[in-house]
Inverse folding.
DNA sequence: ATAAACAGACCAACGGTCGGTTTCAAGGGA
DNA sequence: TCCCTTGAAACCGACCGTTGGTCTGTTTAT
């Protein structure tokens, strides 16, 4: 007896499909809480089929994280590939990458994705992703800082160390943003919004001062970011 | 037939013993990789015995993390309880807490503990611990910053936000320290040591500038820290 | 014809449960 | 003071459902 129809997919397509399914499930249910059964049913693939393409659940996770990090890092690479702009402009473009991305896509949806990724249960997942991004972004930001030093506009002793510090600071903003998002629609919303604005201001002020720039040189490039964030609909 | 001897322990003692065992195992093997079987054998307790005191493996983890965080936070609380010192002195004591602790104990052993805790497999564990410390330390550091603002020596808009930023920056130092420790005894040791010094310098420079203090006001308080660290014996 | 893609029964090991057993301190009668 | 009773807390270990992963075989496509 033969089952009437089965379509063998090209390996790269199947791999991509499995990564898509895993990404959705890992971030909605959490990695540990997502069973292989969940993935298999969601992707409509058998166990044997899956393990033909991935050798473990962990490798599937790394596949998801690497793909996400590569997406971010490739955008950064585009920014730094511009040989004609000044270091200040490159830094500007670099720090605006995130805000631009968020603004150019459906912002409420992006907020929801961000919120989900920052749930407690995804802490390990997210930290691994951030580490990948930091490691990949350090040489890119270093290059910008080095250029600025050669131009005589940035005053830093060690560009690589400064780059790492600046990248670490963005974790601090993530934390403030998460709290603000959680406070939407509650009585704390107003205070949380003000705290978020404080965090944004302080992050960029810190970057200015670390690089020896006049206060206000760098900024988020999106004055209404807090307003746009807090007006987003809380999940419910 | 009766087994000749069994000692019932006082609940708090048994709990403490289980936490001790779990802490050792979680950080040496990793949380996910540590089996309840491992814990039970190491503590010489049966399954039923264990689950009489903890309701799950996760609760055991939280017990370990909370106990560790409480240890750190109680030291911070002692510093800030000093009502007579100036804000600068309090900040000094606060930032020196870690260096003092390391110096006053067997430093090579502390380095080994730090190295183990910072292994890749413990990333989730460590991040949860750091989060606990950060949340608990924010009001303490905020109090110091507030006092400094009232004295007119710190220039910050929002003390709580500034406190969180400063606490986040210490993650950056942890990262640099981990790399330096890993580089001991290799050909990269010299460079790694210099990078570590850069990171220490930049962390404290950043604190100075965030608080509007003259460069060099805050410091690690342990000039030979890098030397002491790099001279530690690599595990082998 | 042959190699890759897929299927699904199977397995060891895991975290956790549950009914039963042992320990031990607090009382009470002599 | 001594021994016995008693009951709650500490502890035991066989057992269970689920999990991630393997293995042998079957289907698909070139």
């Amino acid at each position: 007896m033969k089952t009437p129809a089965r379509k063998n997919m090209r390996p790269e397509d199947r791999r991509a499909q499995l990564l898509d399914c895993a990404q959705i499930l890992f971030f909605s249910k959490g990695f540990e809480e997502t069973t292989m059964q969940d993935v298999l049913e969601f992707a409509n693939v058998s166990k044997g089929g899956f393990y033909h393409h991935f050798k473990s659940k962990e490798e599937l996770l790394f596949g998801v994280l690497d793909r996400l990090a590569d997406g971010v890092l490739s955008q950064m690479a585009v920014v730094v590939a511009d040989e004609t702009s000044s270091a200040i402009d490159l830094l500007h473009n670099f720090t605006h990458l995130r805000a631009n991305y968020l603004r150019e896509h459906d912002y409420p949806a992006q907020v929801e994705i961000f919120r989900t990724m920052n749930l407690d249960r995804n802490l390990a997942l997210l930290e691994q992703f951030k580490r990948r991004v930091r490691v990949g972004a350090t040489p890119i930001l270093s290059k910008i800082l080095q250029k600025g030093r050669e131009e005589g506009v940035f005053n830093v002793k060690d560009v690589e160390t400064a780059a790492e510090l600046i990248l670490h600071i963005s974790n601090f903003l993530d934390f403030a943003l998460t709290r603000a998002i959680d406070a939407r629609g509650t009585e704390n919303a107003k205070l949380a919004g003000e705290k978020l604005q404080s965090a944004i201001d302080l992050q960029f002020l810190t970057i200015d001062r670390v690089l020896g720039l006049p206060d206000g040189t760098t900024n988020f490039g999106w004055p209404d970011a807090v307003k746009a964030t807090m007006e987003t609909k809380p999940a419910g």
Observations:
- Chain B has a mean pLDDT of 95.
- The longest helix of chain B spans residues 123-151.
- Residues 202 and 235 of chain B are 28 Å apart (CA to CA).
